[in-house]
Write a structure and sequence with these properties.
Blueprint lengths: L5 H11 L2 E6 L6 E5 L1 H18 L5 E6 L5 H16 L3 E7 L8 H14 L4 E10 L2 E8 L8
Parallel strand pairs: 3-4
Antiparallel strand pairs: 1-2, 4-6, 5-6
Length: 150
């Protein structure tokens, strides 16, 4: 419509039964639009809900193991970690030591490496193996999906 006085714009909006909404107040002169404001808010809320539906919230799940874990028990832990990663969650592997096991942390690290190689097809290691007190940690994250370019 071009540059119009505020009164003329308000009258025009009232004639149409709509609202005069200021779009860009910093511009000189300010930019306004004649729209149905309630319908505008409804559509904005609808867009926000759609955007929230498409988001994926990932969590960090923990899988705890001991250095003297049995072969079958280890397979069960690997299977559980695989399920977490396939769901899009990160997995923190924790090897816990008690008493004299602390002298053989390398056994726990070997088990963590074994799990890492078993899950290497669907996960990547985030950071490196870290040790704190009587525990050794490793964090696995789902592999990034490569985008296809056409």
């Amino acid at each position: 419509m071009g540059v119009v006085s505020i009164q003329a714009a308000l009258e025009k909006a009232q004639d149409q039964g709509k609202d005069l909404v200021e779009i860009s107040p910093q511009a000189t002169p300010p930019v306004c639009k004649i729209i149905d404001y309630k319908k505008f808010l409804y559509e904005m809320n609808k867009k926000e809900k759609e955007a929230r539906k498409k988001q994926k919230n990932s969590q960090v799940k923990e899988v705890r193991i001991r250095p003297r874990i049995g072969e079958h028990d280890l397979e069960v832990k690997i299977k559980r970690a695989r399920e977490f990663i396939e769901d899009g969650d990160k997995v923190q592997l924790t090897a816990m030591f008690a008493g004299r096991e602390m002298q053989h942390k390398n056994l726990g690290i070997e088990i963590l490496e074994k799990i890492k190689t078993a899950l290497s097809d669907i996960s990547d290691v985030e950071g490196r193996v870290s040790s704190m007190g009587n525990r050794v940690y490793m964090l696995l994250a789902p592999k990034k999906k490569e985008k296809l370019t056409k």
